[in-house]
Write a structure and sequence with these properties.
It is built from nine helices and three strands, in the order H-H-H-E-E-E-H-H-H-H-H-H. With 186 residues, the chain is mainly alpha-helical. The protein has one domain: hpI Integrase, Chain A, CATH 1.10.443. A hairpin with a 2-residue loop joins strand 1 and strand 2. Helix 2 runs antiparallel to helix 4. The chain is globular. It starts with 9 loop residues before the first helix and ends with a helix. It holds the Pfam family Phage_integrase.
């Protein structure tokens, strides 16, 4: 599996959302738009149940780390969630699978990671980008770092314990550090 990177241009971020909706489904575009704003791993994002949303907060236990994520939802995410809820009031999961929905004996399940990976890869191929499910989390971290230059805030948002891991994760390379030394003359 190819390593995915943060999407650095805002126009490309918007284009990805548009292409996901056009080529795949509105649900895939919602995953992209909501995922960018929550910075969760895909397993945690897909497992969100409407019961996990309490007012303007999302409270979930991360599967990988066991850490609790308590995220204040921004306006854009709240609007997307309200739209999904209005369209599918009977759903348990925010990103519920539509497979076997006619069968009464099958318990509702979230959309699979595999389906999302396939949709993202399709759009990534079209744009010649290594686009994957982790792109949302990395993109959020990258843009927070660019806006604040505060690696501590990015670490806290991503719930990382090492600055080095976070810098590599969001795609800050030695070339970026070298450029900062050259461009900032005191």
């Amino acid at each position: 599996m190819a390593e995915v990177q943060a999407i650095k241009k805002h126009e490309t971020i918007q284009l990805i959302g548009h292409l996901l909706e056009m080529r795949c489904s509105k649900q895939m575009a919602d995953i992209w738009n909501i995922g960018l704003n929550l910075a969760l791993r895909i397993s945690d994002l897909l497992a969100i149940q409407f019961d996990d949303i309490q007012g303007e907060r999302l409270i979930v236990k991360e599967m990988k780390t066991g850490k609790q994520a308590n995220i204040k939802l921004n306006h854009k995410v709240l609007m997307h969630i309200q739209d999904v809820r209005a369209e599918y009031p009977q759903h348990i999961y925010l990103f519920q699978s539509f497979r076997n929905q006619q069968s009464k004996n099958i318990k509702p399940r979230p959309l699979t990671r595999r389906a999302v990976t396939k949709a993202f890869a399709l759009v990534g191929e079209e744009l010649k980008l290594a686009l994957g499910t982790h792109s949302m989390r990395k993109t959020r971290g990258y843009h927070l770092y660019q806006n604040t230059k505060d690696i501590g805030r990015v670490m806290k948002m991503l719930r990382h314990s090492s600055e080095g891991v976070t810098l590599r994760y969001i795609g800050i390379t030695q070339d970026d550090v070298d450029k900062d030394f050259v461009e900032l003359e005191i």
